[in-house]
Amino acid sequence: MNVNALDDTRALLRQLIAFPTISTDSNRAMIDFIAERLGALGARVEVHADPSGTKANLFATLGPEGDGGIVLSGHSDVVPVADQDWSTDPFEMVERDGRLYGRGTCDMKGFIAATLALAPLYAERATARPLHFAFTHDEETGCLGAQALAQVLRAQGVRPAVAIIGEPTSMRVIEGHKGCYEYTTHFTGIEGHGSGPDRGVNAVEYAVRYVARLLDLKERLKSRAPKNSRFEPPWTTINTGALVGGVAHNVIPGKARVDWEMRPVQHSDADFVKDDLRRYCAETLLPAMRAVSPEADIVTDIVGEVDGLIPADVNEAKAIVMELTGANGADTVPFGTEAGIFQSLGMSAVVCGPGSIEQAHKPDEYVEIDQLSQCLAMLEKLAGQLG
């Protein structure tokens, strides 16, 4: 592994960490920085803004035109740092004891920095096969950027063959993970005085009944686990993230909200859950609510429905990365990535990147320098696939 490449990665990671690309905020400064750097190497760079104009995806290509290229994928956004007890400034990289600390060091700006450090090498070597960079917004909030990028690539007829997603896996080769479906369900009732509960529609109470149904489904899903499932746990899971509602002890709440998610191991489980909840609302909750007030309602917003990465018997991406890393097998993980979106475009996909998911989203997030070195060694060898 080139020592200069590690030094360049350190320097680039320091610059990337300094961009506070929390999902609620803009990522444009970071995307523009990357676009300028890749453009200077002769890359064909496309920046696709979201409708607000404050966020954007980047898709850049080195090498020849045509199908069959290799995509290096990463997301530019990071999770918030508010209410976390950091020992240092989360947006100023700190090196200590063989680790690089800062928000996004492992999830997943370390991988992005490594790809940019080796971009000059790819610019020289990509003579027979295109090398693409795909850097997205809003992965942490429903993979919105990757889904938008997928629509662009479909419309343009761009057909890469391989996608390597650099999420933190401790450089293990990951060939499968569950999907991630996120929802917010809103309950509209009728406010009133707490002394007359029959004259109002208590939105919080109906939200509680909805959560109880989620808990029931959560247990029922265990019996639907596919035989020989490689996931841990082997079944589709449901998590209730928040139940919000109410203003005072003596006021019947007219509004409530439930944030929840499921992580399907198979499409049929997602259909099972959604169909059951539709029937439960239509046949049980809504009739009871509307018997008091016809205006009462339950509405579910889809935050994001991101399919999982399905292990495939034939997977060029897995074969390439196993060869590059020397791995003798591939694993599955419970957390989600954008890999399933690239797979849905017809690419073979694999997840492999520096850092551990155990450090992601936590205060004092870090990536070990040794992990970056392993990543750079893999990415350096990848240049041999391009000529």
Give structural notes:
The longest helix has 24 residues, at 267-290. The radius of gyration is 23 Å and the shape is elongated. It is 34% helix and 23% strand. The chain is built from 10 helices and 17 strands. It is α/β, with parallel strands linked by helices and 387 residues long. It has 2 domains: 3-177 and 310-385, Aminopeptidase, CATH 3.40.630; 180-306, Alpha-Beta Plaits.
The largest β sheet comes out as: 6 strands, mixed
Strand order of the largest sheet: 1-2-6-3-7-16
Enumerate the spans where pLDDT stays under 50 for 5 or more consecutive residues: none
Give the C-alpha Rg: 23 Å
Strand content: 15-25%
- Class by alpha and beta content: alpha/beta
Number of helices: 10
Write the layout of secondary structure elements.
Blueprint: H1 3-17, H2 28-40, E1 44-49, E2 56-62, E3 70-75, E4 94-96, E5 99-101, H3 105-117, H4 119-125, E6 131-136, H5 144-156, E7 162-165, E8 174-177, E9 180-188, E10 192-193, H6 203-220, E11 237-245, E12 251-252, E13 255-263, H7 267-290, E14 297-306, H8 316-325, E15 331-333, H9 339-344, E16 348-351, E17 366-368, H10 369-382
Parallel strand pairs: 3-6, 3-7, 7-16, 8-15
Antiparallel strand pairs: 1-2, 2-6, 4-5, 5-17, 9-13, 9-14, 10-12, 11-13
Helix pairs in contact: 1-3, 3-10, 6-7, 8-10
List its traits.
4-stranded antiparallel beta sheet, Aminopeptidase, 6-stranded mixed beta sheet, 2 domains, 387 residues, alpha/beta, 17 strands, Alpha-Beta Plaits
Brief digest:
With 387 residues, this protein is an alpha/beta fold. It is built from 10 helices and 17 strands.
